[in-house]
Amino acid sequence: MTGRRMGFVIGVILLAYLVSLFVSIYSSFKEATRKSTAVEMRHLIQRACSGKSNTTYSGTVSTTMIFCGRDYRTASTIRHRGNLERIDYNNGAVMISAADATRTYSPDTKTVTVSSPSVESKSASNLDLLLKNYELVSRGTDRVAGRETLVVELRPTRPGGPSKRLWLYPATDTILKMEDRTSSGKLKSRTEFTSIDFSKSIPDSAFQSAACGGSSCATVKECGPRGEAVDQAVGIKPSFPKYLPQGYVMDGVSVYHCACKCGHKAIHIRYTDGLNSISVYETPAKLACGDMCKIHCPSGGKCEVSDADQSQVATASISGRSIVVVSDLPKNEISRIAESIK
Amino acid sequence: MMRCEEADTVIADYSVGNLSEKTRFAVEEHLGVCEECARELALLHMVMAAVEEHVGEIEPPHGLWHGVCSRIETEQSRSWLEKVSQSFRKPRVALGYAVATAALAGALIFGLTVKSPQQIAERSPDPAAMEYVQSHASSSINDAFADRVSLGFAASMSASEERSHL
Lengths: 342, 166
Hints:
A: alpha+beta, 6-stranded antiparallel beta sheet, 41% strand, B: 166 residues, mainly alpha, 9 helices
């Protein structure tokens, strides 16, 4: 081999070495940046979740939501102090949330709907679940209500689930805007502050029961007894699905009181992956109120799946009980859950 | 030898003596052997004679040429969409489009009414099941990052909807 040729070969080897060195340094730098951004976003989300209990603010909020296939927009005012929150809607409805329950007052129907959090539901463990099942993706910065926010997307790690975007104000760890999208990517709801004030103090009286247009309200409880009492209340023992999609854990078992006014009840088994949830309702096939609340289920253990207000509903009749499964999941997944209940 | 299609494009110019000598000879040579094109020329002469007899000399209006010219320029700069819509004015094209649209509509209706085996298992939700859908949505109100404002609004909306149905 001549000296000239030898020099050429050494040059090529040296160049290849330099290129690979550059690529590996660049990749490690990129990976390190990605990891530090992910850790930073994780801390931000954790602070936003716990920060809700430490801040006081009041402001106006604009909401866009898709309900029964229609596009609705509403404005409301929010007053938030620690674990307490009051939302006054422009249609006269009021929602007051406390640690024990959320109460929605409807002056139109003169009712107050009480929704209690599940016994097993703990926000810290739910947050861990959320961070396990959802990837945090940075979407840059944006201004909301005159404040600079960091935009974070919660994207499911497995395909087929809904997603969420949060606009976080790091100075107070407050969520100034949020956007929910269905598993098919369609907008479900968007809520954003149009103005917010962190300096005003809010009196206790703001979080006391709201009247229903000057008269007393009839109370409707969304969640009834739990645990052992569920069997007695509904008359059947809960049957749990043998199949659940990966990442879901049980959130609670409670009694659901049908809004049909005939007093029939259902067992409500709820599963969550931190953001999305699956509800399984079980009722005895023979109801005291006849056909009014009867779900027309196909027999033979097979289920029917239908679209309903950005969710999928699977109905089945299994072992003398009617089963309804509701979730924003692909049709094959939801029917598989329903058919796994024996 | 000139063919009928070529002769057809220049026969009107030939009838008024508006062709080069070379093309005129080619047309005449073709007319000598093609009865159909000769008949076409005779027809043209008859039409021209009738026009001259009944209409006489008409002076073109002032600015006619500029008007025609600008219309030609506009025609060239028209968008494809306008050209498509213009083509609908031609009976044969319009008929073609109508047949194609009817075929498409038929296929759509057929596709919607005849369900595949997989679709047969699907149906619109049971009204009783919708109660559970609403309950499912409300049950997330206490979740970590739930949009409580929209969920509360949905709850108040559904309460009003229920009332309107009673």
